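Case study: SAM-dependent methyltransferase.
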Amino acid sequence: MQKLHPTPRPQLSLPVPSDDALRVSRQLETLIHTEISSNGGIIPFSRYMELALYTPRLGYYSGGSAKLGADGDFTTAPEMSALFGASLAQLAQQLFTQTSPEIMEFGAGSGKLAFDILTECQQSQIPLKRYFIVELSGELRARQEERLKDFPQVVWLTSVPTTFSGVVLGNEVLDAMPVELVCKSEQGWKRLGVSTESSTTSSTPTLKLVEMHENDAQIAALIAQIPNAEELPIGYISEVHPIEIGFMRSVAAMLLAGKAASGRGGVAIWLDYGFPAHEYYLPQRDQGTLMCHYRHHAHSDPFYLPGLQDITAHVDFTAIASAGVNAGLDLLAYTSQAGFLLSCGITQILSRIPVEDSQRYLPASNAVQKLLSPAEMGELFKVLILGCAVELPDALLQYDRSHRL
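Here is what the predicted structure looks like once written out:
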């Protein structure tokens, strides 16, 4: 197995974790080393990422630490402003004329987006029958239950149901799904795995990336996502997204089954950061998009304190759209977050707050500016909408960029 980074990684100047947090990370690292050992000395990077993020009680999303806001590792749009959720509720109201009056959210996190959508539905008398949250983490579900205790419409699920007709939402959920890493070597494309090596500074072995040895058919299936893969330079490293693609097929099957059972349409709205394939796999992006977040610091070392940091990769929106369309859905729209929120009426919702009420208006206005500004989240984040038997409002279609996929 070829080691990809023979020189030691530079020391990261990041906040020091508490003793309890460090103990949890060491427990998870021991579990990872044990799995590597029991699998012939190597596991796929996707499996490492799954363990680091989702191991019960130890993984980043399954543990008890705060993830969002000032005390967490990053801030999402719902955490910045309640107007984000209110805008989605207003769009859902328009879509409910074609779908069942139900919402299903994946990746609900703290429950803030659900709270804001449900609050807007209540205040604007939007007829929302049920709000499903698909949640695997018991710790996150407990937080959500506390926050949403006053909304009897909320129903928790632990898996994707077989049928659903309504509005599916996923805000920053695709980027947190485990990815495969691939590298172009002189012998061709290789999948990357995680192995161990003895440390010169610690009794605990360190984790490292190595090339895996697989047959040509397996590699070809992975890199089919990459356009012009053979033209990229030797040493090029990037991500491919088979788990996201499989998830999208499951969502498509659920919506199509819902249409067959109810005669009502269904729509899935994905908000995340990413690119179309022709921008994702640029020659100059030769180290991929993998990024880690720890206490509001971003860096690129996925092996730093496993379980205590987020690990994400940008979304290949072309691959996700293709998966949905190939599974039978319609590509309804692809646009920027700014265009999406403007079409949903976020500025009109902001105008409900009197300008004279500066204590309320100024923070809300500043948050909306961050959500819409091309220099902030407005252009970095994209929105992909797939569905069946649904037509989007004209106000949204005017911002459509589907041709760029």
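For the exam, be able to explain this: DSSP finds 14 helices and 16 strands in the chain.
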